[in-house]
Amino acid sequence: MRGGLLALLLAVSPAWAAELPAPAAAEIGRLLDALETSGCRFNRNGSWYPAADARGHLAKKVDYLRDKGLLASAEDFITRAGTGSSVSGKPYQVQCGTQPAQSSADWLRGQLRRLRSPVQVP
């Protein structure tokens, strides 16, 4: 009986681990939307990409991390997916218009502050 219960718990635990709280999923989605519509460029491993391509790349990382149960908040997304390459270790950068490039983590944290602000700042 115990062996059957253990097998059942092991079989269903990945589903529990893969759940992402709805508020976190919404914030992550809004961050990805903000990036995609920003008109900014995204530097990954030394190459610049349009923001729409960056969104696609980061969305794949979100799916992977969610499936592994490693995301519980927008902050987790920024730290684990939006900061840099998990392969090369190189940090991601975002450049908007004529502004100097900044770390993607700083850009995403700024966007998250705006999203959470009761008064929307342009």
Task: Describe the protein's topology.
Layout: H1 2-18, H2 22-36, E1 41-44, E2 47-50, H3 51-67, H4 74-80, E3 93-95, E4 102-103, H5 104-116
Antiparallel strand pairs: 1-2, 1-3, 3-4
Helix pairs in contact: 2-3, 2-5, 4-5
Rg of Cα set: 17 Å
Q: Could you describe the largest sheet, including whether it forms a barrel?
A: 4 strands, antiparallel
Helical percentage: 55-70%
Can you count the beta strands? 4
- DSSP strand content: 5-15%
Give the termini separation: 60 Å
Strand order of the largest sheet: 2-1-3-4
The total count of helices amounts to 5
Query: What is the H-and-E element order?
Result: HHEEHHEEH
Task: Provide the domain count.
Answer: 1
Q: Give average pLDDT, whole number.
A: 87
Question: What do you see in this structure?
Answer:
The chain is globular. Strands 2-1-3-4 form a four-stranded antiparallel beta sheet. With 122 residues, it is α+β, with helices and mostly antiparallel strands. The chain is built from five helices and four strands, in the order ααββααββα. The protein has one domain (2-116). The model is unreliable at 1-17 (pLDDT under 50).
Keyword list:
57% helix, 11% strand, 122 residues, single chain, four-stranded antiparallel β-sheet, disordered N terminus, globular, 4 strands, alpha+beta
Task: Summarize it.
By secondary structure, this protein is of the alpha+beta class.
